[in-house]
Design a protein that fits this description.
This protein is an alpha/beta fold. It has helices at about 20-25, 35-50, 75-90, 100-105, 105-115, 130-135, 180-185, 195-205, 230-235, 260-270, 285-290, 295-310, 330-340, 370-395, and strands at about 30-35, 55, 65-70, 95-100, 120, 140-145, 165, 170, 190, 210-215, 245, 275, 315-320, 345-350, 400-405, 410-415, 420-425, 430-440, 445-450. The strands form 5 sheets. It has a 6-stranded parallel sheet, with helices on both faces.
Length: about 450
């Protein structure tokens, strides 16, 4: 999770017809966003639409006349942070717009926190100007109904000028018993390949060096209109320009039907980072069944093996939920065994939390105690760090090219396998450098710039 204030310039290649908006120009909107890359993309589009309509984007919360927060509700701890932040913004006395997943998934909770706040769902981005106009006028507006407009080719202000976040779909086809995101984003709706390609071309022409393809679940992309992820990736890789594509999260159950083809696409296209985020959630098939994940631990292993057999340096990221209802020590050991057997480079570990409205939240008497879940989480973190360090050790001494995608207090770039490479020297955002890895940790590679 991260939050960043928004102050970059509007994408110059998207033309917006501006009419005189004297009243709007005198008002500043403060925008902050939390959660996944899709939430970040939503905030970029909201900012672009408001700026295009004449509003000025505040560079600090204090100078804003209205606060707008794009929320996330995927975890209990995340929701607590959202609640705390909404309370803080409400105390300022300024008009408030609460957008994103939380008002869509749990409207009542947001309204208890601030009955006067306007609400906007993750599929109501096209109502951004109307919502802000109304809120400034003192009239609360609730825009939670899903729009028919797709979230593609919308003017935006990027959080990072060298990263273009492109949403390829909304919603998913899964029915996980623990997930609240489905309540907020609904059923799968894939955007057309041609529209996605146009967005990528716009981003690349504007100077983006990384394109992030994001959605609730990239694995099921296109199943609602007869297309597929592999077809989309081939089209994206055919676009001219100096850039690389990061494919976002995909659930394992949709991979087998396209596994050979998908591996082949990654192997043959240099424009694709050799990176995948494939959440397994548990190594126990019994727990996976209770989660209604639609896959087995063995299927996850097969996917990892297929990519690593062809590309041994392929970076795998996964997610694990610890302390899911009825989880036993035996279930936990199966998860540890799976991690040691597949060696994911990155393991995002979360302790289970019951999310309102989900099936698992209704289960009684089967919860794992907080103390036990915490202890199991610590054990998993230890295993994950060992594996990450081992995987990063394989890059010791490596020489090659990286693209700088962070150039603030820390300077960091990415290599072709999307490994984070940290430099001690200053570098320009978006620049390409030849480096040599001189050290490593469980989190990143450390390198020096080659002359």
């Amino acid at each position: 999770m991260f939050v960043r204030s928004l102050k970059p310039r509007l994408i110059p290649s998207i033309k917006i017809i501006k009419k005189p908006q004297t009243e709007r120009q005198s008002k500043k909107v403060w925008i902050e966003a939390y959660g996944c890359s899709a939430s970040m993309a939503d905030s970029e589009m909201i900012t672009g639409l408001l700026k295009g309509a004449g509003y000025e984007i505040a560079s600090s919360r204090k100078e804003g006349s209205l606060n707008l927060i794009v929320t996330c509700s995927v975890k209990d701890t995340t929701e607590h942070k959202m609640v705390h932040r909404i309370k803080q913004l409400s105390k300022t006395g300024k008009p408030l717009v609460v957008a994103g997943c939380l008002p869509k998934a749990d409207r009542g909770k947001v309204e208890l926190l601030n009955p006067q706040a306007s609400l906007m769902g993750p599929h109501s981005i096209d109502r951004s100007v109307d919502v802000v106009d109304s809120t400034f006028a003192g009239a609360r507006l609730v825009a939670l109904d899903d729009s028919t407009a797709g979230k593609i080719n919308i003017p935006k202000v990027r959080l990072n000028p060298v990263v273009g976040i492109v949403e390829i779909a909304s919603g998913c086809m899964s029915e996980c018993t623990f997930c609240q995101t489905k309540l907020a984003k609904g059923w799968l709706r894939s955007y057309r390949i041609g529209d996605i390609a146009r967005q990528i071309k716009t981003d690349v022409e504007a100077g983006c060096k990384e394109i992030w393809l994001t959605s609730t679940d990239n694995g099921c992309y296109g199943r609602d209109h007869g297309s597929s992820l592999t077809e989309l990736l081939r089209e994206c890789c055919s676009i001219d320009g100096d850039f690389k594509i990061r494919v976002g999260m995909m659930n394992p159950q949709y991979v087998p039907e396209m596994l050979d083809e998908l591996v082949d696409v990654f192997y043959k296209n240099d424009k694709l980072f050799r990176f995948l985020h494939v959440p397994v959630q548990s190594g126990s098939n019994r727990i996976l069944g209770r989660m209604k994940r639609g896959h087995t631990a063995e299927l996850f292993s097969d996917v990892v093996r297929a990519f690593r057999d062809r590309m041994p340096d392929f970076t795998i990221s996964t997610d694990v939920i610890v302390g899911f209802p009825t989880e036993t020590e035996n279930d936990l050991q199966k998860t540890i065994d799976l991690l040691r057997g597949t060696e994911p480079d990155i393991v995002n570990i979360s302790r289970y939390s019951a999310r309102p409205g989900t099936e698992a939240a209704k289960w009684k008497g089967v919860r794992v105690s907080t103390k036990v879940a915490k202890e199991r989480s610590e054990r998993l973190h230890t295993v994950a760090r060992e594996i990450s360090r081992k995987r990063n050790a394989l890059w010791a001494g490596w020489q090659g090219q990286i693209t700088i995608d962070e150039a603030g207090k820390a300077v960091q770039g990415r290599n072709y396998a999307y490994k984070p490479v940290v430099l001690s020297e200053p570098a320009t955002l978006g620049s390409k450098l030849q480096v040599q890895v001189v050290d490593y940790t469980s989190l990143s590679l450390k390198a020096r710039v080659l002359a």
